[in-house]
From TrEMBL, chain A:
GO MF annotations, alphabetized: mRNA 3'-UTR AU-rich region binding
Location in the cell: Cytoplasm; Nucleus, Nucleolus
Keyword Cytoplasm found: yes
Organism: Marchantia polymorpha (Common liverwort)
InterPro entries found in the cross-reference section: ExoRNase_PH_dom1 (IPR001247), ExoRNase_PH_dom2 (IPR015847), ExoRNase_PH_dom2_sf (IPR036345), Exosome_comp_Rrp42_subfam (IPR050590), PNPase/RNase_PH_dom_sf (IPR027408), Ribosomal_Su5_D2-typ_SF (IPR020568)
Keyword Cytoplasm: yes
Family the UniProt entry places it in: Belongs to the RNase PH family.
Gene Ontology biological-process entries: exonucleolytic trimming to generate mature 3'-end of 5.8S rRNA from tricistronic rRNA transcript (SSU-rRNA, 5.8S rRNA, LSU-rRNA); nuclear mRNA surveillance; nuclear polyadenylation-dependent rRNA catabolic process; rRNA catabolic process; TRAMP-dependent tRNA surveillance pathway; U1 snRNA 3'-end processing; U4 snRNA 3'-end processing; U5 snRNA 3'-end processing
Protein name, per record: Ribosomal RNA-processing protein 42
CDD domains cross-referenced by the UniProt entry: RNase_PH_RRP42
Keywords, comma-separated and alphabetical: Cytoplasm, Exosome
Domain of life, source organism: Eukaryota
GO CC list: cytoplasmic exosome (RNase complex); nuclear exosome (RNase complex); nucleolus
The Exoribonuclease phosphorolytic domain, residue ranges: 33-172, 203-267
Automatic annotation (TrEMBL), chain B:
Boundaries of every Exoribonuclease phosphorolytic domain copy: 25-151, 155-216
UniProt GO BP: nuclear mRNA surveillance; poly(A)-dependent snoRNA 3'-end processing; rRNA catabolic process; rRNA processing; seed germination; U4 snRNA 3'-end processing
Similarity comment: Belongs to the RNase PH family.
Molecular function terms, GO-annotated: 3'-5' exonuclease activity; RNA binding
Signal peptide positions on this chain: none
Subcellular location: Cytoplasm; Nucleus
Protein known as: Uncharacterized protein
GO CC annotations on file: cytoplasmic exosome (RNase complex); nuclear exosome (RNase complex); nucleolus
Keywords carried by this UniProt record: Cytoplasm, Exosome, Nucleus, RNA-binding, rRNA processing
PANTHER family: EXOSOME COMPLEX COMPONENT, EXOSOME COMPLEX COMPONENT MTR3
Length: 290, 243
């Protein structure tokens, strides 16, 4: 993803050789994630926010909630919108078109994983739970990701940060004052004292498998990513269902390899989800103590 | 809601609204040489989806671009303003851009970029009528146009999409089916090598269902690849007769 790392051929063969013997440059095995830390409630203006540090990768995610009319033809559903920004402050490559393209790639991959099908089934949040008044008023959740620093595996990092931001998110209680009749417009008051949490149990995490040589690794660093032939990002939820899949990199993949990658991603995701949940609750309790 | 949508898309005998079985693709029409001034071109119809792709080049890369040892593939997808039911559908710009990226990713590995160093091959796709499965139609058509232009390729690329509606897997969905889908799969496959160049999943899938969908799509792509080869051979034979 990041071009111009300027690796020598010795460094390249060191990376490839390490992956082949299941011992990577930083001592990890092929299917091990780097240690990560999560901070929550870092943006006071947002309904929920989180910062994730995964090795040298540093991302922020925020969730903002707005009341709006339900999407046309779907009175029982709320709305989600996902957007990612890569600021040139993180890396000079993000300036101009390079950043735009990467932002679009990341946004699309996240949308594919979190928005579900055209009917709204399989979305990362039960869209029906976002309805305030059927056919008239629903919550629209804006997920915004920001890349502060990039050392590979941005997509997975953003998905984890968004999950943490969502579990940090509280929706203010809405009191409908009038407009319960079908003809009238809804009138409401926001109660900024009481908040309801959003159910995050369906929210998937993305595990990207980066293929270097014959093997695939999880949580690749920027250096490892520069040596990839192909990468497959699989979104997996707690139940072990696949919620979205995106392929990057030019090289073709055999269908059986793809299926194997999916099963590896599923296995890795389950331990990852457990450690993310632990990190999130640790961050929340840290926050409560302050 | 779930039941309603199923009822609307599948008839009581298990066939779809256009009398296809869930695992059947729409009738296709493929023809190369649609645009006479282009180095290569193709026209494709999949049901009511109609696309035209022309290929220009290899020609000199734009001055602004950095030096590249290997060739470049420049892909651009446009929808006509009358392609969709709503004229110039909102958000069309976004999907134009996204389709261009996905088209590039699907073809990149199949084209031998080393065979035209320092130059650019332009692939311009135009969707005349959007009737569902637009992206696979564009990719399939573009791969024919590249072959028609005589660009060296490792293999031809065939692409197909699939909609999941309730429990049913509908291959090669129409616009209506796509707008009600719970999930979708799209793959682009190099048919002889059986290598996937591009793949996306949306919606929730169990492993068994995902592999079933993948197999359905791969088989359909291999069959489509055969049809593409026949089309290329026939059109080439016709062209030699004419001269």
């Amino acid at each position: 993803m990041v071009v111009g790392l300027g690796l020598s051929s010795a460094e390249k063969s060191y990376i490839a050789g390490g992956i082949a013997v299941d011992l990577r440059g930083d001592g990890r095995g092929r299917h091990h994630f780097r240690d990560f830390s999560i901070d929550t409630s870092i943006i006071p203006q947002a309904n929920g926010s989180a910062r994730l540090r995964l090795g040298g990768t540093d991302v922020i995610a925020s969730v903002k909630a707005e009341l709006c009319a339900p999407p046309p033809g779907r009175p029982h559903h709320g709305k989600l919108e996902i957007n990612v920004e890569c600021s040139p402050t993180a890396a000079p490559e993000f300036e101009g078109r390079g950043g735009e393209e990467l932002s679009m790639d990341l946004s699309r991959a996240l949308q594919r994983s979190f928005l579900g099908g055209a009917s709204g089934a399989g979305a990362a949040i039960d869209l029906a739970s976002l309805v305030v008044l059927e056919g008239k008023l629903c919550w629209m959740l804006y997920f915004d990701g920001l890349v502060l620093s990039s050392d590979g595996n941005l997509l997975d990092a953003l998905s984890i940060a968004m999950k943490a931001a969502l579990s940090n998110c509280g929706l203010p209680k809405v009191e409908i004052t009038s407009g319960t009749n079908p003809e009238d417009d809804a009138d409401f008051e926001l109660n900024e004292e009481e908040f309801t949490p959003v159910d995050t149990s369906r929210f998937p995490v993305i595990v990207t498998l980066t293929k270097v040589g014959k093997h695939y690794i999880v949580d690749a660093t920027a250096e490892e990513e520069s040596q990839m032939t192909a990468a497959v990002s699989v979104a997996v939820n707690k139940k072990g269902s696949i919620c979205g899949l995106t392929k990057r990199g030019g090289t073709g993949l055999d269908p059986s390899v793809l299926l194997d990658m999916i099963s590896v991603a599923k296995r890795v995701s389950q331990t990852l989800i457990t450690s993310i949940d632990a990190e999130i609750s640790a961050a929340e309790s840290r926050h409560d103590d302050q | 809601m779930f039941l309603n949508s199923q009822k609307a898309l599948l008839k009581s005998d298990g066939t779809r609204l256009d009398d296809r079985l869930p695992s059947h693709v729409r009738p296709a029409f493929l023809k190369t040489g649609a645009v006479s001034v282009a180095a290569g071109s193709a026209y494709a119809e999949f049901g009511s989806t109609k696309v035209i792709v022309s290929v220009y080049g290899p020609r000199e890369s734009k001055k602004a671009q950095a030096f590249s040892d290997i060739g470049r593939l420049n892909c651009d997808v446009k929808f006509t303003s009358f392609a969709t039911p709503l004229r110039g559908k909102a958000g069309q710009d976004v999907s134009d851009k996204e389709f261009s990226v996905l088209l590039h990713k699907a073809l990149e590995d199949a084209v031998d970029l080393h065979s035209f160093p320092k130059t650019t091959v332009d692939v311009f796709a135009l969707v005349l009528q959007s009737g569902g499965g637009d992206l696979p139609a564009i990719i399939t058509c573009a791969s024919l146009a590249l072959a028609d232009a005589g660009i060296v390729m490792h293999d031809i690329v065939a692409a197909i999409s699939l909609s999941c509606v309730g429990k049913d897997l509908l291959l090669d969905p129409t616009y209506k089916e796509e707008s009600q889908q719970d999930g979708s799969v799209f793959i682009a496959l190099m048919t002889s090598r059986r290598e996937i160049t591009q793949v996306t999943f949306t919606g929730e899938w169990s492993s068994t269902k995902a592999s079933e969908a993948l197999e359905l799509c791969c088989d359909a792509c291999v069959k489509l690849g055969e049809v593409m080869r026949v089309c290329l051979k026939e059109d080439a034979a016709e062209a030699t007769e004419d001269t």
